[in-house]
Amino acid sequence: MILAVDIGNTNIVIGLMEGDEPTDVYRITTKSNHTSDEYGLMLLQFLQLSNFTPDDVDDVIISSVVPKVMHSFISSVIKFLGLEPIIIGPGIKTGMNIRIDDPRTLGADLLADCAGAYTTYGGPVLVIDMGTATTYNYVDERGTIVSGLITTGIGTAAAALTSSTAQLPEVQIMRPKSILATNTRDAIQAGLYYDSLGGIERTITQFRNELGTDFKVVATGGMSKIFETPLIDIVDPHLIFKGMMSIYSKNI
Q1: Among 9, 113, 173, 202, which residue carries the largest CB count within 10 Å?
Q2: Where are the domains of the chain?
């Protein structure tokens, strides 16, 4: 069994992998002040909940965009599981060709997303990751990452709205029943949803206009399940894990 760990700005997501799909997925809040012992105890608890022991873990692969967390988390893996994890980054074989201006600036999570989308669904493909930020990365038919786009995630937009205004309440991020809101809470939910949805659809359309070709659209990330549009072909919540396992297979 392989432990695949996605360390993001908001959550650390841990997939217990037996093949390309996780048997169980666990989430913890990303905090830079956790010690290696705290992370280690969490890992042991997650394994126990899934009826595994540390001896069942054959290897660990980590994708991270939060450098401050890495020292403690890597130390926890070494101390509690007795394994040296594989880190997605420079020097790792990915099977992907990165043709942006500075390939080092492409986040490990986005690289894994693109690898997962290309190996699972083929190319050309536009990969949308809807998390703290919403990102778009285009992968051509040869597996080359040729361009990307970054914008505000819907949750980040909601937090900015409520923190910058005195009387607007926090709301749950969800698909509204109607755009015809009749109270403040529904008005915020509908506004956030349709503003984000419109941006997603317009961005996909602009990619098609400028590329002059058709492509699949694959969405992933915590917010991807709430958006409903015919322009998104596939919603795959485990896309990053598929990419991490593809990368793992090229490095063992």
Answers
A1: 113
A2: 2-87, 97-247
Domain pair 2-87 / 97-247, same fold = yes
CATH topology of domain 97-247: Nucleotidyltransferase; domain 5 (3.30.420)
Residue 117, pLDDT score: 97
> Checking DSSP bridges between strand 125-130 and strand 133-139, what pairing results, if any?
antiparallel
Catalytic residue among 59, 101, 102, 109: 109
Name the token pair of 80: 């509690």
CATH topology of domain 2-87: Nucleotidyltransferase; domain 5 (3.30.420)
Long-range contacts of 174-179 (CB under 8 A, 24+ apart): 174/226, 175/226, 175/227, 175/228
pLDDT in tens, 78-130: 999 999 999 998 889 999 999 999 888 899 999 999 999 999 999 999 999 99
From the list 90, 126, 91, 94, the residue with the least C-alpha distance to 105 is: 90
| Beta-bridge partners for 133 | 152
Q: Tell me: the pLDDT tens digits for 22-68?
A: 999 999 999 878 899 999 999 999 999 999 999 999 999 999 999 99
| pTM (two decimals) | 0.90
Residue 87 among known ligand-binding residues: no
Respond yes or no: is residue 102 known to be catalytic.
no
Asked if residue 9 belongs to a known ligand binding site, the reply is yes
